[in-house]
Amino acid sequence: MLKQIISIAVISTLAGCAVTQTSEPLPQPIDAAALESGLAKQQAELVIAIDESKQAQATALTQISTQLKALETQISDINAEPEEDLVPVALECPPSPLGGKFLLGAEENVYIDEVKASFNTRIDTGAESSSLDSRNIILFERDGKQWVRFDVFTDGPEAPAQTFESKVERFVRIKQDADQKSDRRPVIHAHLKIGKYKAETDLNLVDRSHLEFPLLLGRKFMQDIAVVDVGQAYIHGKKKTATASNR
User: Fold this and answer.
1) How far apart, in whole angstroms, are the C-alpha atoms of residue 237 and residue 111?
2) pLDDT grade, residue 240 (50/70/90)?
3) Alpha-carbon distance 136 to 158, whole Å?
């Protein structure tokens, strides 16, 4: 009797387990079509992303190419510019503690626009006015104004002099020595260039053939615009050959 009861209990237990196992959901079959569609969509999105990246890179390369061509054009223009006949000594004027003023050496190369020539020049703080070596100075009138005609050795004393005319601003009397009489000189207005600096000043015309420098700049020129370091020379560049110097 006991064996029958145990057998019935075991059978009931096994039957319950069988019912429990068959009640779990079975795995769903894979939809091959949906999977293929999803993969195709991802592939299309990836292709679009790659194409957009290529297009962005192509645009960037085009911009870089345009910039390179512009730089090449600028370099070609710079190389095509005529080189000045100057040997650079300093790229920039050394800083001055006087603020706003530029520095000059005891000697500089100065370009005068009115005669289209450069001259090795004496920067003289001991002289008040400035003077330019001129020959055959002749005064005349034009439209009721005083004018002057003069010759300048723009290419050095060995080359022919060039003749120029300019309006006389005024006359000055300069006395070189105490035992000499003062001489009356015509004064013209001139536009100068020293390195990268431009300035204006008055120049009196006189024969300086007995002096070393054809051009002298005095205190009136330097006042309020420049200071002089007598220990330096040609801070703003020097001509390769001193063709305009009267030596």
Assistant:
1) 11
2) low
3) 17
